[in-house]
Amino acid sequence: MAEVVLGVAGGIAAYKACSLLRLLKESGHGVTVVPTPNALRFVGLDTWQALSGRPVSTDVWTGSDVVPHVRLGRAADVVVVAPATADLLARAAGGRADDLLTNVLLTTTSPVLMAPAMHTEMWQHPATRDNVAVLRRRGVVVMDPASGRLTGADTGPGRLPEPEELHEQVDALLGAPAAAASAAAGDLAGRTVVVSAGGTRESLDPVRFLGNASSGRMGVALARAAALRGAEVHLVGAHLDVPPPSSVTVHRVGSTAELAERMTSLAAEADVLVMAAAVADYRPESSSEHKIKKSGDDGLELRLHQTVDVLAGLSASRRPGQVVVGFAAETVPDRAARLQVGRDKLARKGCDLLVVNDVTAGAVFGSPVTEVAVLSRDGGVVEHSGSKAAVAHHVWDAVLTQLG
């Protein structure tokens, strides 16, 4: 797999980097931890060595015969700094080389992802904002921190995103290397996007429903990627099995009708609408107010009605210049036949792009990886495979070709 350098700066959130390290190792990556001297005041050297299975150093003198600050930078496929403190951001922006981590940051030519964590006042200080802007201009991917509980009783923006979210971002940079440049450039900055995710449910009674196996992973990955690239993101989540990104506005819905209402409402201010949610196509004619009981060995007859076609409705009412993206989960194993089904659906729904995948035998549901074909109205087709985090960036690349 890949070689990852995990830089850890001296903040209380350093403990979360232990979980990130474990996730990276479980994915098969080789991980070298490079803590700053202050980071070792929070998590000790032995912990990093035990979890990584590799020697750990904070200075350029240990193992100087192999010139570690150059070797590590050159060997890395990606460099991740989590947490990145205000001090680390300042030193990196200034081109300092006063410990091993800042030396690695100066020597690497690989994608660099920084996840800031600090008190709200420090994150919002003009000096920090200027340093972040400098780093982004140089091609460094600097995430916005999450909002939430900080040290002590403080709350606000400045919290390190959860390790699972950081792991997804690393997967994206490894699977779609161009995503680093897109994120650093903020190529979706100034855009408002709305992404639906998860599976809708239609109630039979208070405890039963008609639904589907969607986990929401793909939609969440799309929302996370758009936010990383600078967009204002609204995620309309229908029963997600994975946590939503920390940097988006989440709208919870249950049924297809609720999803349609919320998507239509948010569409008024959106530049891009992405219907990645798996919609229940049918609903019961009526829903019981009480739990339906068995009656001997008799079966249960249900009369179903079609639900509203959310994607077709959004396409029909879109404004000039607004881009609508649909998803099609098909059980057609033959590639040529599956693409033809997708082309027919693209024409029928009226959207600008349609992302088609094969879900035969439950493939991709709940999985971190996928394989898709992105169809466009002009007849184009581009296929991608890999982690959903990486594929999400490829989908946004296609969206950018449609935006005016």
TrEMBL record:
One of its GO terms (cellular component) is phosphopantothenoylcysteine decarboxylase complex. Residues 1-192 are annotated as: Phosphopantothenoylcysteine decarboxylase. CTP binds at D281, K291, F327, K345, K349. It comes from the Bacteria. Keywords: Decarboxylase, Flavoprotein, FMN, Ligase, Lyase, Magnesium, Metal-binding, Multifunctional enzyme. Residues 193-404 are annotated as: Phosphopantothenate--cysteine ligase. Transmembrane segments: none annotated. Binds 1 FMN per subunit. InterPro entries: CoaB-like_sf, CoaBC, DNA/pantothenate-metab_flavo_C, Flavin_trans-like, Flavoprotein. Residues 3-171 form the Flavoprotein domain. Pathway: Cofactor biosynthesis; coenzyme A biosynthesis; CoA from (R)-pantothenate: step 3/5; Cofactor biosynthesis; coenzyme A biosynthesis; CoA from (R)-pantothenate: step 2/5. In the N-terminal section; belongs to the HFCD (homo-oligomeric flavin containing Cys decarboxylase) superfamily. In the C-terminal section; belongs to the PPC synthetase family. This is Coenzyme A biosynthesis bifunctional protein CoaBC.
